[in-house]
Write a structure and sequence with these properties.
2 copies of one chain form a homodimer. Chain A folds into 2 domains: about 270 residues, L-amino peptidase D-ALA esterase/amidase, CATH 3.60.70.12; about 120 residues, Ubiquitin-like (UB roll). Helices cover about 30% and strands about 30% of the residues of chain A. The first copy, chain A, contains 11 helices and 16 strands. In chain A, the strands form 2 sheets. In chain A, strands 1, 2, 3, 4, 5, 6, 7, 8 and 10 form a 9-stranded mixed sheet that branches. A 7-stranded mixed sheet of chain A has the order 9-16-11-15-12-13-14, sandwiched between helices. In chain A, β12 and β13 form a beta hairpin. Chain A is globular, with a radius of gyration of 22 Å. The interface between A and B is large, with 65 and 65 residues. Chains A, B: It catalyses: L-glutamate + acetyl-CoA = N-acetyl-L-glutamate + CoA + H(+); N(2)-acetyl-L-ornithine + L-glutamate = N-acetyl-L-glutamate + L-ornithine.
Chain lengths: ~400, ~400
């Protein structure tokens, strides 16, 4: 069998063998939408968790981080509508109870269950509703439940984010699947990113760790909608080994292929999050080249992506490269303005720090597109960085005004 | 005479003895508004200039920085409607010509003239119009011209920013005056801050330097509207000595009083800039206390002031303290969430990282006010920082969409 990766657009966390899922509406959200999701493997497997770097981490993050350190996982329970953050000892007790209830329902140690929450900060969970919801979710677990689980974690997302992959790995076929939610909360809105990836591949603990970290670095760490890093961001990867392939280690020939598949899956889910960002009208890929090193390239890219003035001009379809120059100028990166070149989808706007003389019409044609790429070449070294971001719209402000 | 500082609300750069000014409409702006201002002392004096730290500095900044290093100043020529930034050798030649034309008009070395520009980046100045405008401005110089000069530097500001002060300094009366412009440009919009301060006080070069740096650190460096640091920010302080007071040195008893007056003047102008920020509806003072040091306090304050989610919730009059917790959590400052207290105008919202149990009504009453103060006590050390900022509105986005 030749090595190949085949996307399964309708796939999700239940695409890999031995994974069940469900989604239910338990009443955390006022309007009766789904707000609880459960993902579960038929047997325990390896797990890797990557969590927000925010120092005000939510209770479910603290609990899941502790469980992930043990490396063995069976299930993930996720709720939307409430972040269970800044909720003190009560919040920690509630997160623990969620894990315990799932563990007793499926029959595994509590340490093999992970908890994710997303929603308003500072409000205790309505545990009466959550308990009933967990019991319901346990009862509805099914190999077709991935779509419901994708729905159960949504907030202001306008569509569910899920995907599967089939990979020819040596003599075996293995599968990967994922669900994710993006930026925005209903009542009110907080940028939070949650993602659960499942695979039936058998991997060494080290191989899974390395692959997950690399894939996250190239996907979820390369997107920015509003620059707000949440208290709840979580990515979990569960591998149950049911494909019964020879264990993939860092030294295996198959590692590179698994890495490619995982990176592809997370990259697609990350792009879906950006494309469905709150109130956005443009998706913009920023490529920084010629920086003195990668750190400087990242600083320049993030300054551009975070600049309100830059984001507003994209929304207005104005190829205002002066604002790009200003943003890289204050980014902290080494910049010699007389060496900077800037291109919009390959059309040169800036040559050596000055306008390139291109007809404004050509540049405006690019920024009218719903998606375009801006390449900024600093002309100093070989550091480069890629970042996917969005414009800033009146609708974003309206959505996030809260009550 | 007792030491006292008396605000002159109608004052400006022409309040101190021996300063003339003018403002004209020379056609840089399409709609015929004033777009050129000239401030000039009858005789040369000391000067201090403080400039943007943006590495993509505009031509007038490069020129004025070089002139300011010589320490002697006579006049400042300022234009709005065009930033003369990213304009290469042409831009540098244009800025130099502006200084030369003013110098030859008033009869002083070119090095005693300073140039400030604000407006769109990347477009060469219409020098035909600028030359005529400078000649007109020279012809209209007058001791009552400060108000016109304040008008000539405006962009999307909705009112001119100017003020004067009378100070009893030992046996003498001295005067200070200032004009400033805030965030926003007409076609299109770029956050740029320009300020010219005049005084007839006689000070040593060192005393003027120290006083100016301290005053800027406490005023213009403590405001944030959209977090974008421009290519053109400039603060110039001219002291012509015509009050004929005994020279104030760092060791003089009068230094402290001069410092207070200059800090007061810049503080008032800085506040006017924030209050007139683009499209804003709220002015919010952020006080960080209990940080491990001042650097951490500043990081926490700036993270809060730059958070789109925080700014949107203020606009929506939602006392969403969870977003404040999230922002300090990712600020890079040392934070122990279980020690954080937060107060809105003294009403406690957060106690040791959890909701304080205050009635939501009391908090909502505070955030409905046009101006309020948020105190965040990190409960770790004694580092503190104060920052004045604004909300983010749909109107800001509309104003900055450009074309």
């Amino acid at each position: 069998m030749k090595e190949e990766i085949t996307p399964i657009e309708e796939g999700s966390v239940t695409t890999p063998r031995g994974f069940l899922a469900s989604g239910v509406a338990c009443g955390i959200k006022a309007r009766g939408e789904m707000d609880l999701a459960l993902v579960c493997s038929e047997r325990s497997g390896r797990v890797v968790g990557l969590f927000t770097e925010n120092r005000v981490a939510a209770a479910p993050v603290l609990l899941s981080r502790r469980h992930a350190a043990l490396g063995v996982g069976r299930a993930v329970i996720l709720n939307s509508g409430n972040a269970n953050a800044c909720t003190g000892a009560t919040g920690m007790a509630d997160a623990t109870e969620m894990a315990e209830r799932v563990a007793s329902g499926i029959g595994c140690p509590t340490e093999e269950v992970f908890v994710c929450s997303t929603g308003r900060i500072g409000v205790p969970l309505p545990m009466g509703k959550v308990r009933k919801g967990i019991d319901q979710a346990l009862g509805r677990l099914s190999p077709q439940g991935g779509s419901d689980a994708a729905l159960g974690i949504l907030t202001t997302d306008t569509y569910p984010k899920k995907m599967g992959l089939k990979v020819g790995l040596g003599e075996q076929e293995i599968f990967l699947g994922g669900i994710a939610k993006g930026a925005g909360m209903i009542d009110p809105h907080l940028a939070t990113m949650l993602c659960v990836i499942t695979t039936d591949a058998d991997l060494s603990s080290e191989a899974l760790q390395v692959a997950a970290r690399r894939a996250v670095a190239e996907s979820f760490n390369r997107i920015s909608i509003d620059g707000d890093c949440s208290t709840n961001d979580t990515v979990l990867v569960l591998a149950n080994g049911l494909a019964r392939n020879p264990t993939v280690t860092l030294e295996s020939g198959e590692f590179r292929l698994f890495q490619s598949a995982l990176s592809l899956l997370m990259g697609r889910l990350a792009r879906m999050i950006v494309e469905d960002g709150e109130g956005i009208s443009k998706v913009v890929e920023i490529l920084i080249e010629g920086a003195s090193d990668e750190g400087d390239a990242e600083r320049a890219a993030r300054a551009v992506a975070h600049s309100l003035l830059v984001k507003c001009s994209w929304h207005g379809e104005d190829p205002n490269w002066g604002r790009l120059m200003a943003a890289i100028g204050y980014s902290g990166a080494a910049v010699d303005k007389d060496r900077v070149d800037i291109f919009y989808n390959g059309v040169q706007a800036v040559s050596r720090g000055e306008r390139a003389g291109t007809a404004g019409r050509l540049l405006r044609e690019v920024v009218r597109l719903p998606q375009f790429t801006i390449l900024i070449d600093l002309g100093i070294g070989s550091g480069h960085f890629r970042l996917l971001t969005t414009d800033l719209t009146e609708r974003y402000v309206r959505l996030n005004k809260g009550e």
